[in-house]
Design brief:
Mean pLDDT: 96
Low-confidence stretches: none
Shape: globular
Number of strands: 8
Bound molecules: pyridoxine-5'-phosphate
Structural class: alpha/beta
Helix content: 40-55%
Order of helices and strands: EHHEHEHEHEHEHHEHEHH
Radius of gyration: 17 Å
């Protein structure tokens, strides 16, 4: 099984918004990422439009040849955009205006009815649903039980762990959650993301063989400042491949 790399190009837009210019364009970045081997493009259209803009999502839908994953909050405004633009996948994430980035997973258990109705609206326009959750037993059961096409496990705690023991413990939590998901459904895709970089991605891939897909943004775009975007994507693909080679 090969692990797909979806590149999150939000922070190309962050640089653009910092000056209110037309460049650098996240749409152009997506094309370069695809040429370099990215298997999909991810963007987070935040309610405050701090980086990605509506225009970006619409252009990406037309230009992305691989797969467009739209991350968004579970609000009516966002669901209406997804119904109109029809990305390949919508990933629902919790969103707080004051946060710097997505801080935790979605509480699926606490809003089953709301998520069920969003899933029905997305099903009606053939858009797949992914739920971004913490590697927690109850959340995994609820997300798979809802019939989500994918779950995306939040890797933030793994990426922030410092001691070897803490890192091992976090990898264990992620592995347990991923195993549970595939034991509940053969069809569910297991994705992971948040805080991944060239130093921690191989161990994650090696330790959690159920992972099908990774969403990587901030560190990859930061590496691209020095390496160039094409080279950065290639380096992440190589790191993922190194992790796959270590799987038993
Ligand atoms: N996956 C999800 C659901 C996210 O919200 C984010 C951040 O937007 C990412 C992955 C990417 O995280 P990072 O930018 O830290 O690589």
């Amino acid at each position: 099984m090969t692990v797909n790399l979806h590149v999150n190009v939000d922070h190309v837009a962050t640089l653009r918004q910092a000056r209110g210019t037309a460049y650098p364009d996240p749409v152009e970045a997506a094309v370069i990422c695809e040429h370099a081997g990215a298997d999909g493009i991810t963007v987070h259209l935040r309610e405050d439009r701090r980086h990605i803009q509506d225009r970006d999502v619409e252009l990406l839908r037309q230009l992305v040849k691989s797969l467009l994953n739209l991350e968004m909050a579970a609000t009516d405004e966002m669901v209406a955009i997804a119904e109109r633009v029809r990305p390949h996948i919508v990933t629902l994430v919790p969103e707080k205006r004051e946060e710097r980035t997505t801080e935790g997973g979605l509480d699926v258990v606490g809003q089953l009815e709301r998520l069920r109705s969003i899933k029905a609206r997305l099903d009606a326009v053939d858009v797949q649903l992914s739920l971004f959750i913490d590697p927690d037993d109850a959340q995994v059961r609820a997300a798979v039980g809802l019939g989500a096409h994918a779950i995306e496990l939040h890797t933030g705690d793994y990426c922030e762990a410092e001691s070897d023991d803490a890192i091992e413990a976090e990898l264990g939590r992620l592995a347990t959650a991923a195993k549970l998901a595939v034991s509940l459904s053969e069809d569910v895709t297991v994705a992971a993301g948040h805080g991944l970089n060239l130093r921690n991605v191989s161990d994650l891939v090696a330790s959690v063989p159920e992972i099908d897909e990774l969403n990587i943004g901030h560190a990859l775009i930061a590496d691209a400042v020095f390496l160039g975007l094409e080279r950065a994507v290639e380096r992440y693909k190589d790191a993922i491949e190194a992790g796959e080679a270590e799987r038993e």
